[in-house]
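Figure S4 source data
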Amino acid sequence: MCGIAGIFDLNGRREIDRELLGRMNEVQHHRGPDEGGLHTEPGLGLAHRRLSIIDLSSGQQPLLNRDGSVVVTYNGEIFNFKAIRRELEARGYRFRTHCDTEVIVYAWEVWGEACVEKFRGMFAFAVWDRNRETLFLARDRLGVKPLYYAQLADGFFIFGSELKVLQQHPGLPRRVDPRAVEDYFAYGYVPDPKTIYRDVYKLPPGFRLSLRRGRSGFAPEPYWDVPFRVDTTIDEETAKDELVVRLREAVDIRMVADVPLGAFLSGGVDSSAVVAMMAGLSKDPVNTCSISFGDPAFNESKHAQTVAESYHTRHRVEQVDPEDFSLIDRLAGLYDEPYADSSALPTYRVCELARKDVTVALSGDGGDENLAGYRRYRWHTYEERLRGLLPSGLRRPLFGWLGRVYPKADWAPKIFRAKSTFEALARDTVEGYFHGVSVMHDQLRAQVFTPRFRSELQGYTAVEVLRGHAERSPTQHPLSLVQYLDMKTYLPGDILTKVDRASMAHALEVRVPLLDHELVEWISSLPPEFKLKGKEGKYLFKKSMEPFLPDDILYRPKMGFAVPLAGWFRGPLKQTLRDAVLNPVMADSGYFDMDFLKTMVDQHQAGTRDYSASLWSLLMYDSFLRLNA
């Protein structure tokens, strides 16, 4: 994988500061430690850091066409590049390299903005066409690879693979966006296209952006969406067989590399299925790795070992020190903006472990969103059935009242913790799902924030993110709708961001076969009951994998990739938490009711409430503030 950066003069052909462009590039050295390159001409500068994966001896970037009029800087892999290359060669193009980068240059010449629709893979790239005076940027359909951009007050446009790239530019405003803060404390990340700063944006997944010199105004436009057009003619047996064929093909095209390749193996269904497919496609044993935890409640390593032994993989496993908190202060530097998924800690460690043996690793990410694996999908469909039993005029006041009077019982068994369910049932479909996925629910955020900060929001609430996507959703089926919402928010904003930053910190490329867009399109066409059947999530996927994996892998309870935050904050991180959440930097921001934050810390550490996820998000926000002070 790689890192890209650029500076473009929207108004003219002012000289580009090569030293500044070099600093922007070098701050992402970790993304591409093998080589770096700059290209400048009047009004334009492109930069690239390379992690060599295919065609190691050539393919340096930025890469130019034969007459030098088209230049590309590119991060990612286009897995169908050989087929596109053959099509371009039939049109008379002659290639100087064997890498996929050169395909982008000539694809742009032939198809222009539509070139991105030809590509099958994960990518973020920028193409400069001097003859058209156009800078074209694009991001892959599911958002595996990131792309940040900003228009500066002086008419320059800057972009990069990480926010820290843009932060190198002295002209970048760093005004925190209150709406992004509201989003962060609701979701645990800042959803696309926002960033934590008002004037910086992420190009959303499946979007492209064209800028013409001298033309004012520009807006990203979508080129793809998850269709969710259900095929009512397909039967379960046919779908089961086809799923195996399609998954094997998606894995196969991701096994092309000129460097050592392997896979993450957590012991869950998704990663185990990917490893099973790899083993059937490889002549040599597959390199696999997993990490283990001392606490059996968080440990899946024995299940990973079962799969590794079954497929005779070269398996490396290491135990994570349960008292290793050294990464906490590093996370803010990795993610640049507030990011509150605590599984970033073990993800960093498993990427570090994988890099000891391989440069490319396949993962099982995307299976839960794609195939309906999250438990919350089951709860949501259950709540939707209950919502349908009562009219809104009766349901809202009844369950709203029950939600208010029912005691909060974090300490009790789940069956007795009905408060959250009552609160969800008082809401509509989108509000109910938002309530279930929120790190801090509406009432808690209202208590955490100061009146001054709430007034800055001018009535904005984070649920509007989901509402916007729901309005554009191609489906209104209760299950498919929330899958769609997750694919637009949680998948790119949390899951893929986590893996990208953790892997790139170790110069490791991660490929995601379950997010192959052709596979995603096909899965979205399956009847929803093939995905969630009764209480069984990933129903069809598990049935299709029965010939390849044992039942105790396929049908055991889902564990996730969590860390024991609640215990940490009452034990070894007790004082660290207090120092972070209650420090003057947080108070000086003016956003937080410090008395209420102290109440949260006190109640959590006394064991009367479990605020662990909310406190982690506050701790991570403090890290962001201190890093950017």
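Figure S5 source data
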Amino acid sequence: MDIEKQIQELQERLKYIEDIFGSKENANIALLRSKLSDFIKRYPKLELKDCKRQIASLLDLFSFLEKKLEKQLTPMDKVRIVRHPQRICLKDILENVYDNYTEIGGQDEYSIDPAMIIARAYITRKVGNKVYNQPVMVIGQEKGHGQEFRNGGSVKPWGNAKALQYMKVAETENIPIHTYIFTPGSYPIEDYPGAAQQIARNLYEMAGITVPIITVISEGGSGGAEAIGLADMRLMLSHGYYSVISPEGAAAIEGRIKPGMSTTPELVEKCAAQLKITAEDNLRMGYIDRIIKEPPLGARPEDYDFFKRLRQEVIRATDEVVLNVRGIKFFRTFALRKLKNPNIYVRWTLGAKSKERLIWRRYRKFRGLSQHAYIDNRPAWKKVLSKGMDLAWAIYSFFRYDILGRHQRKISQVVEDVQGELHAALGKTIQQVSRILRELPFFKKEKGETSELTSLSTWEKGSASHTDWTYISPQARQDRAISCPNSEKYGCLDLWAPDLFGDFAGVCSYCGHHFPMEYEWYLYNVFDPRSIHEFNEEIEATNPLDYEGFEHKLEQAKKMTGHKSGCMTFEASIKGLKVVVALLMAKFRGGSVGAAEGEKFIRAVERARLKHMPFLAYVHGTAGIRIQEGTNGVIQMPRCTMAVRRYLEAGGLYVVLYDTNSYAGPVASFLGCSPYQFAVRSANIGFAGPGVIKETTGLDIPPDYHRAYRALSRGHIQGIWDRREVRNNLFQALVTMGGRNLYYRLG
């Protein structure tokens, strides 16, 4: 019976190896297949002694050739490893890494989302004669071992919401958070709260969680990984992958694959290699801190030595994060880092000062990432001048707002309280004096004068005339009639192009349908004339992964737009109100975000914070994160979100305005975390486009699934604007949300 069990185990090992290497011919696999097949044929005729000897020989052969095959693994082979049903899962880790745990938030099929597991666990450590039980919150995607109800670890919005809820519980209890990433990506559903909205919320809150966060990555697919991946220490399993998109998805885009068609295995293999998705690639680029070595061909549930190693690594990582923000730490830090001594006890709870240092170190860690993935073409003197200006603004802001502003606020509050008391005591007398004063000529207001703060934006008289538009779209030069797509539904008559794109600003005069307009239309018709002053225009998008053919595509985009990246940053004014703006241009590679765009966005946010100015993100369109930059692109999601959080916590006013099509990573992070999001009437907003949703879920979505009013109904955006009223509405928003001179919460 033991022989038959061993034969079955060898058959499973062979099947596992064949699954990993797919249809590729391999002499080592062929040898294993041949040897095992021969033994199975001869086994009934052999004596027990010979069976045991040949089984032992086969086991040695399997172990030897598995080590050889390990060296032949390609990036796509590693993708197949992490997707295999025999791959370790989170339940295996909970059973073998932690000493005890209680699953919370629902279990298995009866959970709010079975793809997300939350567990309150503890790790027992014996130092000397004393035993310590150190509690921890464990959060991660669960793929299981072929359990269909787990949805392959693809988490729905409410699963990510559950994860965030228990991160906040861990923060309240002052215990560390260990997150485990086992996901190909989030489930692209826009039902409330919406995939993009919830990931943005998770990133924003994780940036400010005041307990250590340790992340272990096995399969890290884009936004799904980032939803629980913003951590102080990021570890990665040696056979794992971390990528902006799956190799199949990248191949579909590169090969321009239409629905119903399939990509070739060769193209998928090529894209997996180009994306630089392996643990070694990500360690070299700086997006993970350490690699945890797995057994040959990947960790499986019976690899108990691996679980022991994983336990040591997560303990060590948690200790390091805590010691990095503690006061008394020198000898223990030395023992952990240099001697790798696991028998050092570190208390994992943090005090108030340590929590502040933790948040600051987390911000600095992510701020320093992806610096190699863009080009800053500014001359040295200009960089020095820029640093000097930043320092000057920082000093000015400190004295103006932190020193003088604080005293002014106190005085103002005292005066308001005194006035309130006087009004209560002398109300009648003051009213009579005020009535007499208002009758005097020099106190009278002009008839019809209203307060700017309470007036609503209106369509100004004469605004239908093209003379009111500073910029006229080139589409207005077409001498032809254009039919509105809603003509059958609403009976719209054909419009002459010069009228439609000139006088009517691209808006159907019958039904209000918005035709696409160039981003230049907004630059010249929303902001005050000659008020736009661009900065950081020298920062240039590059090809950091040497992705084949991408260099040429970038050059074409730069030549077509006259910009070096897909993000334009500038200062401008709207009816005299100054604002810092980051504009994502759909014309430049679909408005996709890479390292250059992320860096420019962060610098714009920092400029707004230093100058105490409101910050506007105008999204003329974004296709998401630039896949050709791999994790250099996806890391911009947490980087930019952390910059936005720092700005908002300082009291900043952050407004987002969507236009045309806005999808994926940016919407699921630094755009989606704004408390004030609006859309031009023509906008489509969501986490994934219709094609991606069909490919990943098999569902056909309705044509209006991503329309702005759907985003409004689920609370993603706060209003929908007519293009012709954007200038007035933006001014109104800035005035009512911040006031003419007050953009920071000074009270």
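The domain at 519-738 is CATH 3.90.226.10 (2-enoyl-CoA Hydratase; Chain A, domain 1). Residues 446-467 have pLDDT under 50 and may be disordered.
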